[in-house]
Design brief:
homodimer, 325 residues, mainly alpha, Farnesyl Diphosphate Synthase, two-stranded antiparallel ribbon, 16 helices
Chain lengths: 325, 325
């Protein structure tokens, strides 16, 4: 199985470890139901750029961390991410993700819940294979943060949000796991607490930028490419940064609130609103906001001794801000 | 909050620690959604005899284990059990458990999936608080075993089973967690690998007996007491020990197979079959089978130095075999 980042430069210093992550994620299903191994294969084949393991491996590489434990960490983080996606797709009733059928489409809800649970178990097993108790605690706390955030998002659908709500939400949803990737990599490396804290912030900044760009791409992508309607979040009543910025420009426009909060708003109502948002210039403003997080990340990297991994992390930050779908 | 075993003698040596387990399970929800803390309170209040933490605490006490870490272990095991019940109730569509509304009845499926996930995270956090990497690995493996077993059970509904299938199923469903309780308690105690193995077997035997008795009570209980129809497992197409023993007496009775495997069997068909099973003497035979596991457990305990905890574990084994609903 080939890793998915081989054509991207920042992967160069960690080619071998990314392959090892790939293998570790698929191992350890012997003795369990064949269907579970197949489900994990299906999920892992259906995509993902392994960007979270890449961040963990590059950070650990930059800090001289234990290579074998970093591979276990990378595999653990990607499986944790995969498990949350499985339960997410179930909750949304999504039938497709990245152009491939979700488990939810192929299996019953019962089997999907249990498969997600099984992948959590495999992720926890890999986390334990780092042999680090502090990392296990971070792992458990991050899972709690992610799930708490999803539940908060679920309760806040069709409610208006402010910038602070939004930041909390994307931290829980995305940045917390990037933060785990860098912080845990530092714990597996011979560095002091100041460096741990500094690369934790690095993961946070990269993760926040990553999710803001995701939320931008939801607005700018074409339905054929992203496999779901443009601005699908907004259509479900979920307010992300472009909409927030648009509402800041037109603070007294009750029309916007009405469309978002009204369960019976039509697709045409949303089409009009989405067109206004796209034409308003807020997409560029949102990109600037993501850019500020990437600038912070670069600043943190500048303070680290030069290394191929440091350079690769800088490239990764650039990739995150410039990527398209 | 009072523990639920205070009127049972075997709890005497661990009164204080059981209260601490109770507190640890409810702690650590600060900073998360209020609804999650409330859901955990609801779930923990709605019952459970804390028999798994009791087994862990008594085993650890018998072996001179670290009291604080044993409390974290006990709380972790009970929360792991609770999380699997939450997802189980969702999968079954159960609205009641032990006479109290399930989360599934109060909440949407989405919120229920996520609450189960959150409780897994809290269980993992408590497992990490034992500060033992080997225990974390056991914890992750046990979760994988339980979930794999549930999925296997899900796939095998309305299929005929043999004794071996049944043992595998109740190991995954119940005995694996009792085994974790005793084995992990031994790892938190100053004992060698022979004692670890011997108390692992103790947990296995207690857990197997526990589930066989549960399966007997499903046949002998009255609907008003157990809150579900008599022999609800069989009515759902799930074959447990009493039915297996009955089929061994009448190996060529295709009538039994037809009722079990036919999706359109009526409640009356099942009533007749269940009455035949209850009248056939297999309930006593099943009790003897549970008794053999308890005898094994007692034999293992006899080899341990005398202590109040050892005596309490003997009482606990007796309680398991004699309990009613």
């Amino acid at each position: 199985m080939k890793a998915r980042l081989t054509n991207i430069n920042f992967i160069n210093p960690i080619q071998i470890q990314i392959q090892q992550v790939e293998e570790r994620m698929r191992a350890h299903t012997n003795g369990y139901l064949i269907e579970l191994g197949e489900a994990i294969d299906h999920l892992l084949t259906s995509g993902g750029k392994r960007i979270r393991p890449a961040v963990a491996l590059l950070t650990g590489g930059m800090l001289g961390g234990n290579p074998e434990r970093l591979v276990a960490l990378g595999a653990s983080i990607e499986l944790l991410h995969t498990a949350t996606l499985v339960h997410d797709d179930l909750i949304d009733g999504s039938l497709m993700r990245r152009g491939i059928e979700t488990l939810n489409a192929k299996w019953s809800p019962a089997a999907t819940v249990l498969t997600g649970d099984f992948i959590f178990a495999q992720a926890a097993k890999l986390a334990a294979e780092t042999e680090s108790v502090i990392l296990m605690k971070l792992f458990a706390r991050t899972l709690a943060t992610i799930v708490n955030g999803e539940l908060a998002q679920f309760f806040s659908m069709r409610k208006l949000a402010n910038r602070n709500d939004y930041y909390q939400r994307i931290y829980a949803k995305t940045a917390s796991l990037f933060e785990l990737a860098t912080q845990a990599a530092a714990y597996l490396s011979p560095v002091g607490s100041e460096v741990v804290e500094s690369v934790r912030q690095l993961g946070y900044d990269i993760g926040m930028a990553f999710q803001i760009v995701d939320d931008i791409l939801d607005f700018t992508g074409e339905q054929a490419t992203i496999g779901k309607p443009v601005a699908s979040d907004l259509r479900q009543g979920l307010i992300t940064l472009p909409t927030l910025l648009f509402m800041e420009i037109y603070p007294n426009n009750s029309e916007i609130e009405k469309i978002i909060q009204n369960n019976s708003s039509s697709a045409e109502d949303f089409d009009r609103l989405i067109e206004s948002i796209r034409a308003s210039g807020v997409i560029d403003k949102a990109k600037e906001e993501a850019g500020r997080f990437v600038d912070n990340a670069r600043l943190i990297l500048t303070a680290q001794p030069a290394s191929p991994e440091r350079d690769a992390l800088e490239e990764l930050a650039t990739y995150i801000i410039n990527r398209s779908l």
